[in-house]
Protein 1
Amino acid sequence: MSESESLEAIILRRWDYGEKDQIISFLSREKGRLQGIAKGAKASLKRFGPALDLFTWVKIQVRENKNTSLVFIEQAQALSNFPRLRQDYASILLASGLLELSHHLYKEGVAEEAAFTNLLESLKRLEEQGAHRRIFWSFLLKNFEILGWGLHLQTCFKCGKSLNEPFHFFDVEQGGGVCEECRVSSRKVFSLSLSLLEWMNNPYQDKSISPEEEVLLQELLEKQYAHHLHLLPDWNRFLRI
Ligand SMILES: [Zn+2]
């Protein structure tokens, strides 16, 4: 019998399995995204309480299952269930987006502590600051960086010149910023303002971005996401604020 171990995790998804059990998808600090079976979670609320609710930050006791990649969830104890976030519809929508992205961007069983930290910090920001869409965008930018899809925004990716002039262009196909001289006129590039560029270089600041800049940022990030996953995202359902 394999030994059980304790993981720190965020609950991403849960669904019923048979009469009494539930399958839980979670992102752990130690082992990345995993799926587990919680025996009796559907039949008895007492066993796990609210610890397996979506968004909950938990200490979870799991045991490996030799026959499948599903682990057995033996115990779960909530560290925080983000009570303020849960009372606000707009925050719930944004948080749902963070969970869905974490589920799609990270393969099962690939450990990536930075992905866990990014999700936890973003949920804490929603809890403390309320439903600000910039939290969703900075979460995405950080994930792109973790996945190696980082947007090279400080210097021109062709000539290395610093991008501190009033006009900048972003070439999605190349995943980087280009200066005026190096941009290829036949290719679609995004023109970025200096303030948006500064925000993207330091997205965790609590400074807001203008509605026009946000439209541009969303389009750019959607293109970048589609470029890597060959799938156009539908983020508007998380952004109705
Ligand atoms: Zn250049």
Protein 2
Amino acid sequence: MKVAIIGGGAAGLAAAVKAAEKHSVTVFERSGRVGRKIMASGNGRCNLTNAALTADNYADFLKYYNCERAADTVRRFDYNALKSFFESMGLEMFSDEQGRVYPISENSGSVLDVLRVKCQKLNVKTVTDSEVVRVEKGKSSFKVMLHTGEFFFFDKVICAIGSKAQVNNFSKPDHLFGEKFEMTSLCPSLTPIKTKKMWLPLNGLRVKCNVSLFANGKKIKEEFGEVLFRDYGLSGIVIFNISSCIAGEKVKGLKNEYKIVLDLFPQFSLQELIEKLKYRAEICGKQTSTFFVGLFHNKIADAVIKKCGLGEELRNDDFKTISAFLKNITFEVQELCGYDKCQVVSGGIKFDEVDENFESKKLKGMYFVGECLDADGVCGGFNLHFAFASGIIAGSSL
Ligand SMILES: Cc1cc2nc3c(=O)[nH]c(=O)nc-3n(C[C@H](O)[C@H](O)[C@H](O)COP(=O)(O)OP(=O)(O)OC[C@H]3O[C@@H](n4cnc5c(N)ncnc54)[C@H](O)[C@@H]3O)c2cc1C
């Protein structure tokens, strides 16, 4: 059987490896080389999956994926299965304390290279600089047309075109196939967040803190981690995960007002922090200009002094004001940064459009895998895991 794969990303290459075990496979890739996002992933280290993803903690998947079917994919092809898949191609991996899995080379190129070498061994034909502009289903085959005007015939087609995340000209599935597929609305996700007013001159500063997201006053997410202050708002992995939550709500059509609250001392209750600051005053004195030295960065100290209206010397009631501020630094969300800054797109082709092997219910013989589907997760290797897993399931089913 002749199989065409549209898109040489994570999902497309994984599908190619499995499909090529039995069939003749051609991968069409629009850009000059395959696996661009694999290379960019994990800051060039490629966080390809997460050791916390096992069939045993299936319920937890629902926290990461916005759809039962996406979670089911991960259950069918879990961490151990993906680990074995990559081990069988010679990739050595390690996982960090949060379960994030990387190649031991800590270089994304290793992940891409094992896929490329395997494809070569299985005689997968990879055609780069070749954008598929149209696919037409005939009686017994698919006609795959390129931007150059060339066309080829295949028995099956796997569409692994990814998403609009950091991409200029995304191919819309409807245009490619001349068929209307049910899509959710789309929203950039895993992105920095613009806040209404960035009242602190903290650009570039990183703090470890507890971050809570409130939608119309109700807390909907809480996570501990590092926040990076930007002149336009907030960034860092925790903020990316917060953005994923907002994006998920937007895709569902919710229009809430969001606030992000930072707690710089989550290890202490308000009262404990007040006591700690009072005790500190006994040791360090009440001189405001030196009170915060050794506690946190000078820029934060300046912000606290300004926001809490502190005088030259601290008064007894200042400890409560300072503690309340440090545990509730509040930012109103203006918007998520756009498709040019996001790592993934929330939303996509609805899972109702495909069966359990990702075959289109409308166009038999055509498959959708990877990020073009309505599946996105938080940071930690969950997005690449889904891309690989869906590609492998579809490729193996042919
Ligand atoms: C900067 C960055 C860092 C990331 N880090 C991580 C991480 O560490 N861990 C993690 O799990 N996820 C990470 N992600 C997300 C992850 O990379 C994606 O979810 C994943 O790559 C999606 O795989 P895919 O194969 O579905 O799509 P893609 O990897 O986007 O592949 C789609 C491919 O199809 C090609 N294509 C599109 N249309 C056509 C067409 N018409 N004809 C021919 N070719 C076409 C594209 O050029 C592209 O190569 C990161 C994303 C970014 C942008």
Protein 3
Amino acid sequence: MTRTDPPLHSSPGSPAAPDRAAAEEAAMRRALVLAAAGPLTGVNPRVGCVLLRPDGTVAAEGWHRGSGTPHAEVAALAALDGSAEGLTAVVTLEPCAHTGRTGPCADALVAAGVARVVHAVDDPGDASAGGATRLRQAGVDVEGGLLRDEGEEFLRRWLVAVRRRRPFVTLKWASSLDGRTAAADGTSRWITGAAARQHVHEQRAAHDAILVGTGTVLDDDPSLTVRGDAGELQPVQPLPVVVGRRPVPADAALRRHPRGLVETGTRDLEAVLDDLWRRDVRSVLVEGGPTVASEAVRRGLVDDYLVYLAPTLLGGPRTALDDLGVGTIGEQRRLRTTSVEQLGHDLLLTARADDDDRRADDDRSDGGSDR
Ligand SMILES: NC(=O)c1ccc[n+]([C@@H]2O[C@H](COP(=O)([O-])OP(=O)(O)OC[C@H]3O[C@@H](n4cnc5c(N)ncnc54)[C@H](OP(=O)(O)O)[C@@H]3O)[C@@H](O)[C@H]2O)c1
């Protein structure tokens, strides 16, 4: 789960690229690789930046390493040996125009003398957007939309969160082949094998918070910690959140969670997500039982589905989801599979709502962030 820095590209002496478009596209692909070295959790987007010389060779690279550290563009400028005069900045997200914990990147690029800026994704933020306009006003040549689809997909979690002003929601369950998540007596440990369960720990580490209902707490007494192969606690622990009216028992394992516990005392999922947004939570892994999972689906709050399918049969009524209000087959909630992976003897199916792309288009017209 630890990330290593991406190896630096050799810069001076690289052969000149045949033309500007090819050099900029290659640089954008590299910028996306750099961006992926940043942290997946937290309030900030993962951004990468490559500074190109007029001959298309790479002058410097940078990426954002997390909240409070320099943004990708500033990191690339800091890594530069010499002047940025006349360079092109190729950056995965439109440079920001606001002062947060660091200064506006658009101003830093102008001050450094960068001649051209190429970005993949427009900044959807209320406060941070406007960088392209600011750059143009300062005489910088700006082009947006290079590899936009790849950039949007890469930044999907952050973009969904800022556009909907609520955390990105991943719903996870582990079920038998016949879609059951527990046996008749409510026991569910374990349906999947060790590889799938370890994968769940990695998914926990990739979210800011984990959410369950009181039913799961009372039935399973989960610790909701991120643990390694040998059961050891990992350094990064998402915030555990319990929804529901009943209190979490005083001796529950969750009471010993290293991050403490958010006990909401409510069934109102939207209110809980709103509260979590205000606590700077940008992604939530829902690991609740069928009651909470179904409520999240019914309310259209699920962005990604992670379904761990074990080759086992449980039968009975304890299905992964209960009533979704689908009265007839024409009303089914069709999902789109985005990946299928084998984990030991189990399968992990990742999916999203079939209308997710349309919703993203709708979102693009409103939404906001405070990057
Ligand atoms: N295989 C898996 O992936 C998996 C994962 C988790 C759980 N499970 C199994 O699921 C079972 C527990 O199921 P569950 O459905 O009781 O768990 P749950 O969904 O985690 O909790 C349900 C409880 O949460 C509260 N709640 C919170 N928000 C609600 C809402 N919007 N509407 C209604 N109630 C809400 C209610 O209790 P209050 O009265 O307190 O409000 C409700 O009884 C156990 O057998 C467990 O082992 C399986």
Protein 4
Amino acid sequence: MRAASLVRRGGRLAVIATVAVLALVTTTIDVPSAHTEATVTPAVVPAFAGAELGHAATSVRQAPLICVDPGHSESAPGMIVTVTTVDAVGAARERRLREVDINLDVARDVVRRLRARFGNDAVVMTWGEADGRGRAWEALRGPTGDDKLDLMMRGAFCVREGAQSVVSVHTNWFGDAPNGIYVGYRDAEDRVLAEAIHSVLFDAMAVDPAGEPVAGYIDYGLDPGDWFLMLGFGSRDVPAVILEPVMMSNADEARRLLPVIAEAPDGRRAQIARVEAQAIGDWIAATLLRER
Ligand SMILES: [Zn+2]
């Protein structure tokens, strides 16, 4: 639910005002954490070096390489669309598809894949751990109902956890606009991560899981939208991006997105998760792990 920023850029005044509010929130948010910001340094990274060879991280708790944020929340689920499916005997059935459910399903699979590659401690989630562990900013503060405010609180949470990069997983909605990919970022530092993921994701998503080209799938590119100041401010010096690989407002795409990963391990959601995890992981290996 971020496509609106393609046509809605805030002015400088709005940005200054929002950053001021954000500063207020980040100073008052109370996230219990054993980690201080001092842990956010390349010096803690070498323990993950073996990850490239498939070894798990050492037993010493390290600052996470990445914080994965499933976009939206149960109480503020993002966009909801109704998808009509027809079963084998021709009976039509309407099903509700919520953005938060797609995001959480995909994000959990992204996290599972990244942990398999870099070790359990290498990844932290803003909420939605599969085992029910609550690291949620939401449980600490509660959603405000304001997407921008929520986003910056998630960024602040990631920083408090010591994460060295932040990726927010979303699914786009934009009325009758063509299906396509869009990656949001904040500034030049984020753009390297944004470009690394975008280039891989666009090529992959233009083809469906069965190998057929996705009709009308276009590239909305990279957008340094003011929206992403919200995520970026909280994460300050760490790269932060928002991924919007497909449009759930597109009827064909919505149908592809219906099956959950557990029931359709070769489906569209799994395809998105696999490609996002691969692109994020390759960027981690080429940057965070190489800078030691
Ligand atoms: Zn969204």
